[in-house]
Amino acid sequence: MQPIISIRGLNKRYESGFHALKNVDLDIADGDIFALLGPNGAGKTTLISVICGIVNPSDGEVRVDGHDIISDYRGARERIGLVPQELTTDAFETVWATVSFSRGLFGKPKNPAHIEKVLKDLSLWDKRNDMLMTLSGGMKRRVMIAKALSHEPKILFLDEPTAGVDVELRRSMWEVVRSLREHGVTIILTTHYLEEAEQMADRIGVINAGEIILVEDKNELMSKLGEKRLTLQLEDTIERVPDTLARHELDLVDNGNALLYTYNANDKRTGINSLFRDLDSAGIRLRDVDTKQSSLEEIFVDLVKTPTPESTSGAQATAKDNA
């Protein structure tokens, strides 16, 4: 199946010399919820802005549902709905008027039935005649989504969709996004909330310093990179790990009251059986055992902490220049 978004060799360089995107290759499948993760300044918003036609690429190719974003700008753009991070709405307009106006901007004929459906799907129908200035921050966020959906796009970009939203409303927004996917809309979101990506995304991409360093199915990512940690609560406190247990690379934690064993659950040999035998031989008795899978947040932090070869060589070059 042809991807709904296809990016090849995308670069963005600014006049200042800053290289915001570096040879980005990325495919996003039709109907996916794709989460783009990265630290501040990694290039997330720049990448979205290029795809949506807000920022011009320096070179490379981007196709949206088969339409080139440069040579067929209109064809590409009308397939995209964008919900920016900033809340930019006309405070003195009603919800109905601002959403209807957004549809007109794309040259779409009036369709009250579609606007009604969008507002009802987003729980905004009862607010349709309210001015935007009277709405809460969460409701204004929903209006931004309604505006983005007004022209019936096939793809919806959500740039930090739940920024500044409380936990309860955040989870409500997750339900909205899942509902949109069920109606055939491809969702691409950027987020700083790792829980959000873990809960919602089908696939996850990680961008750091303008480079895509990983694209993976969420479950496969968790399986491949997610370690398991076995915490062994001890009956008696110990001052150090016995030498006979050195091969298991245990960490002494909780002031000597527990041992931490890290392993990959996908390995055929996890070493757990031999660990328990060696613990018994060493006379160490256990009070409790707890297993924990690494979270996506821990995986993400490890990924962005690891320097890419290009960034490492760049750092070395800078060091030489400064020497």
TrEMBL record:
Keywords: ATP-binding, Nucleotide-binding, Transport. GO terms for molecular function: ATP binding. The keyword Methyltransferase does not apply. It comes from the Bacteria. The keyword ATP-binding applies. PROSITE patterns: ABC_TRANSPORTER_1, ABC_TRANSPORTER_2. Signal peptide: none annotated. SMART domains: AAA (SM00382). This is ABC transporter ATP-binding protein.
